[in-house]
Design goal:
Number of strands: 6
Radius of gyration: 17 Å
Number of helices: 9
CATH architecture: Orthogonal Bundle
Shape: globular
CATH class: Mainly Alpha
Helix content: 40-55%
Strand content: 5-15%
Strand order of the largest sheet: 1-2
Number of domains: 1
Structural class: mainly alpha
Length: 242
């Protein structure tokens, strides 16, 4: 049965319609020619922020001013539930956000997200050679995209929102806000990077989206993403192998 979520969209491919927002961030940042997903060793902060955004939009997490509290809706996804539990384990105080999302938990966030893409059949683990020996590296760099057509489709959906001038729906808008704050817009390979960057900034300000989506972006999404990435600024969870 499909997972009910505030960030579903009919625009995504049929293979990825039920991805959570953190899974979708990792997915669209993948290499769309099917090569190993080395880019996915980087955005731990974006994945955590994406999970928190989805939890807030689904009312599984509440913003109570100086702290986060558990909401009335139980997370319907184990990855989101894990993030919520970690965030609330020490009271959910915003002042302690760095302790909740950095260090080993950030690395675990990458691993768990990558595992989900493998479980869904969207990617697979592959050995590689290191100094002539076969080795299975940790985290995302061991993955290769299997559903390349689906990835082409989904990246095109995001690219269209960045290159065009039509309103972005909720699911695409949330992803664009995350890419904007994470400075990853150019990784979607837009036609005009300058235009796409300005467009992403506008969407992150609540423009070019339906009114209700704009309100969510300004009230919940942009502040949450900014807070998470600020908490992670001084912490390097894991480096890219690119």
């Amino acid at each position: 049965m499909p997972r009910l979520s505030g960030v579903r969209s009919e625009l995504w491919s049929s293979r990825t319609a039920d991805l959570t927002l953190p899974e979708r961030v990792a997915w669209v940042l993948g290499d769309d020619d099917g090569r190993p997903l080395s880019t996915l060793t980087e955005p731990a902060g974006l994945l955590v922020a994406a999970a928190m955004v989805e939890l807030l939009l689904d009312a599984s997490l509440l913003d109570a001013g100086t702290q986060y509290r558990r909401g009335p809706v139980e997370p319907g996804d184990p990855l989101l539930a894990w993030v919520a539990d970690g965030l609330l384990a020490h009271g959910g105080a915003k002042a302690d956000l760095q302790h909740a999302v950095t260090g080993p938990r950030g690395a675990q966030m990458i691993r768990r997200t990558m595992d989900r893409l493998v479980e869904r059949g969207l990617a697979g683990r592959e050995p590689r050679r290191v100094f002539g020996y076969l080795a299975m590296p940790v985290f995302g760099s061991a993955l290769r995209v299997h559903e390349v057509d689906a990835l082409h489709h989904d990246r095109a959906v995001v690219r269209e929102a960045l290159d065009g001038d039509a309103e972005a729906d909720e699911a695409v808008a949330m992803l664009v806000v995350l890419l904007h704050h994470g400075r990853r817009v150019r990784d979607i390979d837009p036609v005009d990077t300058g235009h796409a960057t300005r467009r992403a900034r506008a969407i992150a300000d609540g423009r070019h989206v339906p009114l209700g989506v704009a309100q969510d972006i300004r009230r919940l999404v942009a502040p949450t993403v900014g807070a998470v990435l600020a908490a992670l600024t001084a912490t390097t969870v894991i480096g890219s192998e690119r």
